[in-house]
Amino acid sequence: MAVSLKEFDSAIEIVKAVDHEITETKNMLNGYLRRLEDIRALAEKSRKIREVVFKFAGKKTTAEAGEISISGINLILDAKSIHELAAVEEVVRSQQEKLIALQKAREGLKWADQIGETEGVKFLVLEKNGVPEKILLRFASEL
Hints:
The chain is of the alpha+beta class.
């Protein structure tokens, strides 16, 4: 989990940054969803072909993944479309969760539209994976 601290000069800048992150996340999610559909179709075709071939060969289908772990990283030898499908599905779920968290954060920032002049105030935003979790206000007299 990536944690960062960003400084803004106004609450409006925070809102713009969240709006930008929402747009970027939606674009990325849409790309993965398109890819998911392509891979899903290919994986289904591959599965059907394998079943037919194994049936005519008189062998049972096996789910040998050829997966090994090296220093905590899993490596799948001779990866099939079904493996890619699982990986892309995991990315899609993660992007959907991030989008929901960003949209909740944006909803929670509605108060920012009503703040007037903020000269002399710094906004420090603690983010986890690009999602604002905490906002610290520092006033010029405390700098």
